[in-house]
Amino acid sequence: MADAVKQPLLHHQPYAYPSHAASASSPALPSVPHSGTGTGAGTPGGGAASFAGGRRFPGGLDVPNLKKRGGGTRSWIRVEAATASVQTLEVDKATMMRRCELPARDLRLLDPLFVYPSTVLGRERAIVVNLEQIRCVITADEVLLLNSLDSYVFQYAAELQRRLLQRAEGDELPFEFRALELALEAACSFLDAQAAELEIEAYPLLDELTSKISTLNLERVRRLKSRLVALTRRVQKVRDEIEQLMDDDGDMAEMYLTEKKMRMESSSVFGDQSLATFNAAAAGTSVSAPVSPVSSPTESRKLEKTYSLCRSRHDSVKSSDNSVTEHIEELEMLLEAYFVVIDSTLNKLTSLKEYIDDTEDFINIQLDNVRNQLIQFELLLTTATFVVAIFGVVAGVFGMNFETDVFSIQNAFQWVLIITGVVGAFIFCFFVWFFKYKRLMPL
């Protein structure tokens, strides 16, 4: 038993591949000899016994577990439109796809394991919403909210339930628009709160950096700028998504789920009535009975009935189009209100970024000024070193081992020092004047 525990994971749970004929797209894998004793030829250390049940991918990749993990059940919070009741459901991905008639790629946007930008998609029977922490599927009858530990999710469900229970009498906004409005409100308020928090932290830090340039302050500003760039990208994506919806009437019409549901119900009822009428007429007419020419409808009567039916259908479609246009305008006004909010948040972040850029320019100017002062000091120091080097040259000349009459002159040493000092001072002043003349130093 202890030896079995020590074996690697790759040999612990072998995955048996199904036996099938090889093809060009899936070539046959080389066969592995089975061995009951655990020592196979060509496999060092008796490794053939580990593959007795089949083969696995290199590295021990467990494909069935990956499939189960991708299609496992998830917890959803369901808010019903009719009763405003909130309940928790355990639904797998396939059931959710059949329930909302959504493809797998749309539900992938709601998966917390993936990082997708903010998206609002209008489908035939649902609206897929991925706005920051709010990830939900909105239908004409319910909202299916992906359950998580985030407080914003529970606040969204509780606020939607409260608004459904306290619905005003004159409020005729469809349920899906109310749910979408609340999702936009939650996302905009969350991003605006983060922007305000960033502003409160940023401005004092930037003012402190301008007064005292230190490594600690520079590191704090660098982290602040990284957060600002990430938040600006998220706000910009929400703003672009709302603007794209506002500019496309087709997308807004797709989101009017209540009208599409009513249209489907009316068409089904009309089809059932037509079928019942046709069956009754067929049952009431006798095949063997002669048809009286007096009782048979004339051609004009048939045309009149056909024209009346077409006109009623045309009026129904026209009234439906007018209703959809009216609700498109309502949705556009709703989106425009939150577009103003998110655009204001983006302007705050843009102003903060400009302030950070101005602070960086100011700091660079200060550092350039200090660098120029150091260069000027180095220039003066180099000039002074050159002047002092003249004394070294004179000392080297008089320190040579040879006889000269200069050493016999009285006070010769003092005169040499005086002349050398005067010449060095003159050379130093000449260099300073030259630097100022060439504007290498401030006047």
UniProtKB/TrEMBL annotation:
<feature type="transmembrane region" description="Helical">
    <location>
        <begin position="379"/>
        <end position="400"/>
    </location>
</feature>
<dbReference type="GO" id="GO:0015095">
    <property type="term" value="F:magnesium ion transmembrane transporter activity"/>
</dbReference>
<keyword id="KW-0175">Coiled coil</keyword>
<feature type="region of interest" description="Disordered">
    <location>
        <begin position="20"/>
        <end position="49"/>
    </location>
</feature>
<keyword id="KW-0472">Membrane</keyword>
<protein>
    <recommendedName>
        <fullName>Magnesium transporter</fullName>
    </recommendedName>
</protein>
<dbReference type="GO" id="GO:0015693">
    <property type="term" value="P:magnesium ion transport"/>
</dbReference>
<dbReference type="Pfam" id="PF22099">
    <property type="entry name" value="MRS2-like"/>
</dbReference>
<feature type="compositionally biased region" description="Low complexity">
    <location>
        <begin position="20"/>
        <end position="36"/>
    </location>
</feature>
<dbReference type="InterPro" id="IPR045863">
    <property type="entry name" value="CorA_TM1_TM2"/>
</dbReference>
<dbReference type="InterPro" id="IPR039204">
    <property type="entry name" value="MRS2-like"/>
</dbReference>
<comment type="similarity">
    <text>Belongs to the CorA metal ion transporter (MIT) (TC 1.A.35.5) family.</text>
</comment>
<comment type="function">
    <text>Magnesium transporter that may mediate the influx of magnesium.</text>
</comment>
<keyword id="KW-0406">Ion transport</keyword>
<keyword id="KW-0460">Magnesium</keyword>
<keyword id="KW-0812">Transmembrane</keyword>
<keyword id="KW-0813">Transport</keyword>
<dbReference type="GO" id="GO:0016020">
    <property type="term" value="C:membrane"/>
</dbReference>
<feature type="transmembrane region" description="Helical">
    <location>
        <begin position="412"/>
        <end position="435"/>
    </location>
</feature>
<feature type="coiled-coil region">
    <location>
        <begin position="221"/>
        <end position="248"/>
    </location>
</feature>
<feature type="compositionally biased region" description="Gly residues">
    <location>
        <begin position="37"/>
        <end position="48"/>
    </location>
</feature>
<keyword id="KW-1133">Transmembrane helix</keyword>
